[in-house]
Amino acid sequence: MKRIEAIIRPEQLEDVKENLQKLNVNGISITQIMGTGCQRGYKEYVRGMEVDFHFLKKIKLELIVADDQLEPVIANIVETAQTGNYGDGKIFVSEVVEAIRIRTGERGGDALK
Fold first, then answer.
1. Under CATH, to which class is 2-112 assigned?
2. Angle at which helices 70-81 and 13-22 pack, to 10 degrees?
3. Is the pLDDT of residue 52 over 90?
4. How far apart are CA 98 and CA 89, in angstroms?
5. Every domain of the chain and the residues it spans
């Protein structure tokens, strides 16, 4: 099992969710976050003073998928969230040692279904 953490633009969220549903991905956690990377934030004028906003609003998706779902899910997220501009986001993949469904006690891949 793999854990996918994808940080994307907020305006890409609905399209990414729709396309992941087509892949029968079961279970997605979504968090609103703030961050900075190559995009470096933006400047705005507040009451005549220039204010530098270093952190931008982003969305963090977290999914746990079976090993055979990993590449299709990553390809789907990249294809859907990519605009070709700075700030499109990043995807991180890590190994999941165990998954347990609390309600039934199911373990491993059965806990993901």
1. alpha beta
2. 150
3. no
4. 27
5. 2-112
